[in-house]
Specification:
By secondary structure, the protein is of the alpha+beta class. Among the domains are: 2-47, no CATH class; 309-391, no CATH class. Helix content is 39%, strand content 12%. It has helices spanning 25-33, 69-100, 111-123, 125-131, 140-159, 163-175, 185-188, 196-202, 205-211, 220-228, 249-263, 275-282, 291-301; strands at residues 2-6, 20-21, 39-41, 309-312, 316-322, 332-338, 343-351, 361-364, 382-385, 388-391. β4 and β5 form a beta hairpin. α3 crosses α6. The longest helix has 32 residues, at 69-100. It is globular. The two termini are 27 Å apart. The model is unreliable at 49-70 and 366-396 (pLDDT under 50). Residues 117-313 form the HD-GYP domain. Residues 379-401 are annotated as: Disordered. Pfam families: DUF3391, HD_5. It comes from Candidatus Sodalis endolongispinus.
C-alpha cells in the first residue's frame, strides 16, 4: 500500500515522513513503535495485491481462517469489487474535471460502469456494498458517488424493477452530486459550521448538476434524482421544499441511499457512524424519508449492514460479513475480539441464523475504538442512553452527502 499520510500525534517524535510505498514488515514495525495508529492510503498509487486475504488476515495479532474454496470465491469477488470501485473513482474524477471545464455530460457514457455494478450486486450484494464503504479523504466525493450507485441498485433489486430502469437509477445514483463539481472545495470540506451564505451556495448543487446533463440523451429519471435527492417528505429539504407525493419514488430512494452513505463515511466535519447505528438513527428521523422506501432499504442492506461492528451475547466483537437473507436480525459475522479478556481472538466465521451456534447480536458496538470497517481506527463518539449506543454529532453542522 502507498501511505499518503501518517496520523502523528502532537507529541510524536519520529523521522518517518508521509508519502511512501509500504513493502516490508520492518516499516510496519517502525510505524507501530512510534505509536502511530492510523494512516491514510492512496489506492491509486498502491500495488495491486490480487492474492491478499480479506480484512483480518493482515491485522496484528489476528489470523485468518485456513483458505478454502469458499475463501477463493470471496477473494475473487472482493478483487472484482475493488476494481469496480477503483474504476468508478477514476471515471467520476474525470467527469467532475470535465464538468469544471464546462463540458455537457451524456449520462449513457457511464453505462458500462453501472452495468458492472449491477452484475456485482446481483452476484453478491454484500461484497461491493462493503467495499464501497472504504473511502479516502481526498477522493471522498468520487467514491461516495460509486457507493450511492451501488446502494441504489441494491434497493432497486428489492423492488424488482425492469433492467432499463435499474440502469437509469444506477446512473442517477452515480451522478447525483455532479453539481458539486462547481462548488468550492473550501465549502465542501470546511471542518466547522457553514455560514448562511455558504449553505446557500452548496444548496445550488442539484440545479447545477442538472444543467450539466445533455437534455437530448438524459432520461427523466436521472434528472429527477439529481434535482430532488435532497428533498424531504415534510417539505424541509431543498432546492424546492417539495412535500410528500410531490417527490417521486426515485428521488425518495436516492435520498435514503445518499444519507446512509454520508453518515457511514468520515468527513472533515464528522466521524463515521457505525452502519447499524446509522440505520437505527435514520429510523427516528420523522418527516425526512419515505418510511416505506426506508424499510425496503433496510431489507436491502440489513439491520446490521455489512462491515458493521457488533457486540455478541457471548461478549465478543464481530464484523458483519453478510447481512441480507431471510433473517435480518441474524446475519453472518466474523468474530475477532473478546470483551472478557480485552484482546484479539483467532478470527472465525459464524452464521447466527443457525440455532446450534448459540450466539446472537446484543447490539452495535464501537466502544473499543473499532471503526465501521472492522479495523482499529478512528473512534465513533458514543454515549450510553436508555436505547443503547447513540452517536453524538461531532460538529454543529448538518452533514452533506
Amino acid at each position: 500500500m502507498y501511505v499518503q499520510r501518517l496520523e502523528l500525534s502532537r507529541h510524536s517524535s519520529t523521522t518517518l515522513r508521509d508519502g511512501f510505498l509500504l513493502t516490508t514488515s520492518a516499516q510496519i514495525t517502525a510505524i507501530h513503535r512510534v505509536g502511530i495508529k492510523h494512516v491514510w492510503i492512496d489506492e491509486l498509487k498502491g500495488v495491486r495485491a490480487v492474492n491478499a486475504r480479506p480484512w483480518f488476515g493482515q491485522l496484528p495479532g489476528l489470523s485468518a481462517p485456513p483458505a478454502s474454496a469458499a475463501d477463493d470465491g470471496i477473494d475473487s469477488a472482493l478483487e472484482n469489487a475493488r476494481q469496480i470501485c477503483l474504476d468508478g473513482t477514476l471515471q467520476m474524477k474525470q467527469i467532475f474535471s470535465d464538468a469544471r471545464l464546462g463540458k455537457i455530460l451524456d449520462p449513457l457514457e457511464t453505462l458500462p460502469l453501472v452495468e458492472s455494478v449491477i452484475r456485482s450486486i446481483e452476484d453478491n450484494p454484500t461484497v461491493l456494498l462493503g467495499m464501497a464503504q472504504l473511502k479516502t479523504q481526498d477522493n471522498y466525493t468520487y467514491q461516495h458517488s460509486v457507493a450511492v450507485c451501488a446502494l441504489m441498485i441494491a434497493l432497486c433489486l428489492q423492488y424488482r424493477l425492469p433492467q432499463e430502469t435499474l440502469q437509469f437509477l444506477g446512473m442517477g445514483g452515480l451522478l447525483h452530486d455532479l453539481g458539486k463539481a462547481l462548488i468550492p472545495a473550501s465549502i465542501l470540506n470546511k471542518p466547522g459550521r457553514l455560514t448562511v451564505a455558504e449553505s446557500a451556495i452548496i444548496k445550488q448543487h442539484p440545479l447545477l448538476g442538472v444543467a450539466m446533463l445533455d437534455p437530448d440523451t438524459t432520461p427523466p429519471a436521472i434528472r429527477d434524482i439529481l434535482l430532488h435527492h435532497h428533498e424531504k417528505i415534510d417539505g424541509g429539504g431543498y432546492p424546492f421544499g417539495l412535500r410528500d407525493t410531490a417527490i417521486s419514488r426515485y428521488a425518495r430512494m436516492a435520498a435514503v441511499c445518499d444519507v446512509y452513505d454520508a453518515l457511514t463515511s468520515s468527513r472533515s466535519y464528522k466521524a463515521a457512524w457505525n452502519p447499524a447505528a446509522a440505520i437505527r438513527n435514520m429510523a427516528t428521523w420523522k418527516g425526512h424519508f419515505d418510511q416505506s422506501v426506508f424499510f425496503t432499504f433496510v431489507k436491502a442492506v440489513g439491520i446490521y449492514p455489512v462491515v458493521s461492528v457488533v457486540r455478541l451475547a457471548s461478549e465478543h466483537l464481530a464484523v458483519v460479513t453478510e447481512a441480507s437473507g431471510a433473517s435480518l436480525l441474524h446475519p453472518k459475522v466474523r468474530v475477532f475480539f473478546s470483551l472478557l479478556t480485552n484482546e484479539p481472538v483467532p478470527a472465525r466465521n459464524l452464521d447466527l441464523a443457525i440455532p446450534s451456534i448459540g450466539d446472537s447480536i446484543a447490539g452495535p458496538d464501537a466502544a473499543l475504538g473499532w471503526s465501521s470497517t472492522g479495523f482499529p481506527g478512528p473512534e465513533v463518539s458514543l454515549s450510553r442512553n436508555g436505547a443503547g449506543y447513540a452517536p453524538q454529532r461531532q460538529q454543529e453542522r448538518e452533514w452533506e452527502g
